[in-house]
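I am writing to request your help with a piece of structural work I have in hand. Thank you for your consideration; the sequence and its tokens are set out here:
=====
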Amino acid sequence: MPLLVKDLMWSAPPVISPDTTLKEAALKMTEVNAGVLPVGGNGKVEGIITDRDIVIRSVSQGQNPALTKVSEVMTRNIHFCRTADSIPSAAETMKKRKVGRLAVMDDKNRFCGILSFGHIFRNDASAAEAAEVILRVADRSHREKQLAVR
């Protein structure tokens, strides 16, 4: 029986407000030992903020993290998978969408967690499933490098 998203996902991560500053978001990431946090309110997820978003979209542009709001740099177009999806299916979605993380929805279409490539590799994925994910990531990375050379 293949592993499912619900077996490896980060369940119920803390959701931060779009009005949270980037500094506060970074402190929360440190507190929960994560590089991503969902952003939203009133039971809805509007996007995600990653440590990379903070660095690339804000700090490197000269913005002050203590003054810049998460809503100014968060990723709004987030991609989803379901708790009952298989790990290879979720990995295929990551590959197709060119993302390393997926928001997870339960059977009632409610946000309930996050799945990342890191979760897949740090947990008890079978060797076959892990190899399949590695090959998908390598294939994507190889193609991106080839396009960058052109």
User: Anything to note?
Assistant: Residues 5-149 form a domain with the CBS-domain fold (CATH 3.10.580.10). The two ends are 43 Å apart (CA to CA). The longest strand covers residues 44-50. The mean pLDDT is 87.
